[in-house]
Design goal:
Strand content of chain B: 25-35%
Shape of chain B: globular
Number of strands of chain B: 9
Largest sheet of chain B: 6 strands, mixed
Structural class of chain B: alpha/beta
Radius of gyration of chain B: 21 Å
Order of helices and strands of chain A: HHHHHHHHHHHHH
Strand order of the largest sheet of chain B: 5-6-7-3-8-9
Helix content of chain B: 40-55%
Helix content of chain A: over 70%
Radius of gyration of chain A: 19 Å
Oligomer: heterodimer
Distance between the termini of chain B: 53 Å
Structural class of chain A: mainly alpha
Order of helices and strands of chain B: EHEEHEEHHHEHEHEEH
Largest interface: A-B, 29 and 32 residues
C-alpha cells in the first residue's frame, strides 16, 4: 500500500504533466481560456435563476450562489464518472508500454475535474462575499477537510468506474442514465428541506451521500454555519466505502487489466 | 547474479470473437446459456524457463507469431504471467511500440518531457538530457510543432531519441522497429549497440541474425510460444537458418 503510493508519488511529474496537457487541450484556441469551462455552470445558473426564482418564489441573491455551488459540484461529479470511464482507454498507449501504477490515470481525470470545481467554487464564494459580506472564518475553514474528502471520493470513484468500463463497455451508458436520474433526486436545484418532509423521498435525501457533500460546502459558504455532523459522517462513510472498493478492485485487476484493454 | 529469471512461465489470452463483453451480455449469458459468446484461448507462451545473469545478452528469434513480443512484455512487467514465476531484479527499460503514447497536441519538446517523466526522470535530470535528445533526433525547429503534424519517420526519430536517452539497467528491445531514413538507421543501430553494452543485462528481439550472433551470448529460438532451442548464439542461429532455408526449398518444391 505504502509502496504503491510511493510509486504514484515518484511518477508525479508524469501525471501532473498530463493534467496540464488536458487543461490546455480543452482551451486551445479559446481566448478566455479557463473561463470557458465556467460558462456552462454560470449560464445554467442564470437560466435556472430566472425560471425557478419565479416558480419557487426565491430571492435571486440567495438562490444564485446556491445554484452555482450545487451545479459546480455536480459538474465535478459527472466529470469524474464520465471521464473516469474513459481514463484507462485514454492512457492505453502508456499502459501498454510502461508498467506504472494504474491509479495514476484516474488521478489525472480527477485532478482535471477538480481544478474546474475549485474555479467554480471560487466564483460562488466571491459572489457570496460581494453580496452578503465575508462569512465566518471557522465555518470557511471547515471547507478544507471537505475538499480533501471530495478529492478522495472522486479519485476512488474514477478508479471504480474506469475499471468497470474496461470490463463491461456498456457501464458508461448505464452510468449516464443513472446520473441523469440522480441529478433530479439530489437537492441541487431545490433545497433539501423541500423533500425532507416527504416520507420516502425524505429518506432518500437524508441518506444520499451527494446531498451530504452538497450540504458540507453549501452551509458554511451560504449560511456561515458549520454543517451538521450527520452530513460529515455520511460523506466520510461514503468516501471510505468507495475508497475501499477502489482498493479492492485495483488489488484484483491491477495486473490483469491489460488483458481486457 | 541472475537479473532475470523465468520459471516455466505461461501466458494465455482469452480472445472474444466480437470484441469486448458487455454487462448486458454478461447478465443474459447467466440467464440463457445459449447466448454465450465464443471465447478462444490463445496460448501465447508455454513453459518458458530461462535466466539472464549480470553482463549477459540474450537474443530472441523465431517466426512471426511465435510469441517474441509477448515474451518481451512479460519480461518488462506489462503482462503478468498466467502461470509460472517471473523474477526481475533491477530497473527495466523497455523499447517497444515506441511511437505509441505521444500527446498529439503537445509539441516535440513537451513530449520529450512527458516521456522522460514516465521513464522516471525528474524535471532536473531531464533538463540535462533534453538538448542531447533534441540533437540526436535532428528535428531542429520541428520540435516546436505539435507532434500531430509529424510524419511517421519524424515520430520514430523523436521516440527513439527519447527512449534511448536513458541509462538502462536491464534493457529490453524489440529491434523490429524501423528507425527513420537510412542515415538515421545507421546512427540508431550504433546507439542501440552502445546502450546494450552499457546495460547490466539485455534482451533483444531481432530478425538480423548476423548482428545477433555477434552481439548476444545466448539466443532463444521461439516457436508457437515454446522454446525450440536455447543455447550459444552461433549454434542457435545456425540451426535456425538451416531450418528456414530447408522450409523455403520444400515449399518451393511443393509449388513446383
Amino acid at each position: 500500500m505504502v509502496a504503491y503510493f510511493a510509486d504514484i508519488w515518484r511518477l508525479r511529474h508524469f501525471w501532473l504533466a498530463l493534467v496540464r496537457v488536458d487543461l490546455r487541450k480543452r482551451y486551445r484556441r479559446s481566448i478566455i481560456g479557463l473561463g470557458w469551462s465556467l460558462l456552462h455552470p454560470i449560464a445554467m445558473t442564470a437560466v435556472l435563476c430566472v425560471v425557478f426564482s419565479r416558480l419557487f418564489n426565491l430571492e435571486v441573491r440567495n438562490y444564485a450562489p446556491f445554484l452555482l455551488s450545487g451545479l459546480t459540484f455536480w459538474g465535478f461529479f459527472t466529470a469524474v464518472v464520465m471521464q473516469g470511464c474513459q481514463c484507462f482507454f485514454q492512457g492505453e498507449s502508456y499502459i501498454r508500454q510502461h508498467p506504472a501504477p494504474l491509479a495514476i490515470y484516474p488521478l489525472r481525470t480527477t485532478l482535471g475535474a477538480g481544478i474546474h470545481f475549485l474555479l467554480g467554487f471560487l466564483i460562488a464564494t466571491v459572489f457570496v462575499w460581494l453580496v452578503h459580506g465575508f462569512g465566518n472564518l471557522p465555518a470557511m475553514l471547515s471547507l478544507l477537510p471537505v475538499l480533501v474528502l471530495i478529492f478522495v471520493f472522486g479519485w476512488s470513484l474514477a478508479v471504480c468506474v474506469g475499471l468497470a468500463n474496461v470490463m463491461f463497455q456498456d457501464s458508461q451508458h448505464l452510468l449516464e442514465v443513472a446520473l441523469q436520474m440522480l441529478f433530479y433526486m439530489t437537492p441541487i436545484m431545490y433545497k433539501p428541506e423541500m423533500l425532507l418532509t416527504r416520507r420516502y423521498l425524505g429518506w432518500f435525501v437524508h441518506l444520499n451521500p451527494l446531498a451530504a457533500f452538497l450540504e458540507l460546502f453549501r452551509t458554511p459558504l451560504l449560511e456561515g454555519r458549520l454543517p451538521s455532523y450527520w452530513a460529515f459522517a455520511l460523506a466520510a462513510v461514503a468516501t471510505c466505502v468507495v475508497a475501499a472498493l477502489a482498493a479492492l478492485a485495483l488489488k484484483r485487476f491491477e495486473k490483469r487489466m491489460i488483458f481486457y484493454l | 547474479m541472475n537479473l532475470i529469471q523465468l520459471e516455466s512461465v505461461g501466458l494465455r489470452f482469452k480472445v472474444r470473437r466480437f470484441g469486448r463483453i458487455s454487462f448486458k451480455e454478461y447478465l443474459l449469458s447467466g440467464l440463457f446459456r445459449r447466448s454465450k459468446q465464443a471465447v478462444f484461448e490463445v496460448q501465447a507462451l508455454e513453459n518458458i524457463t530461462l535466466t539472464v545473469s549480470e553482463g549477459e545478452r540474450l537474443g530472441i528469434i523465431g517466426p512471426n507469431g511465435a510469441g517474441k513480443s509477448s515474451l518481451l512484455k512479460v519480461l518488462a512487467g506489462i503482462y503478468p504471467p498466467t502461470s509460472g514465476r517471473r523474477i526481475v531484479v533491477g530497473h527495466v527499460s523497455a523499447l517497444f511500440d515506441i511511437t505509441l503514447g505521444f500527446e498529439p497536441d503537445a509539441s516535440g519538446w513537451e513530449n520529450i518531457l512527458y516521456r522522460g517523466y514516465l521513464q522516471g526522470e525528474t524535471p532536473r535530470s531531464i533538463r540535462e538530457k533534453m538538448q542531447f535528445i533534441a540533437e540526436f533526433s535532428e528535428l531542429g525547429d520541428f520540435l516546436n510543432m505539435p507532434v500531430r503534424y509529424y510524419s511517421s519517420g519524424m515520430l520514430v526519430r523523436l521516440a527513439f531519441s527519447i527512449a534511448t536517452a536513458i541509462e538502462p539497467e536491464i534493457l529490453i528491445v524489440d529491434e523490429v522497429l524501423a528507425a527513420g531514413d537510412m542515415a538515421f538507421q545507421a546512427k540508431a543501430r550504433q546507439r542501440m549497440k552502445a546502450l546494450m553494452r552499457s546495460a547490466r543485462a539485455a534482451v533483444v528481439v531481432s530478425h538480423d541474425l548476423t548482428s545477433l550472433g555477434s552481439f548476444c551470448d545466448q539466443v532463444l529460438w521461439l516457436e508457437r510460444g515454446r522454446m525450440r532451442l536455447l543455447g550459444p548464439a552461433a549454434e542457435v542461429t545456425a540451426a535456425y537458418t538451416r531450418q528456414v532455408t530447408q522450409q523455403g526449398t520444400t515449399s518451393q518444391q511443393k509449388a513446383a
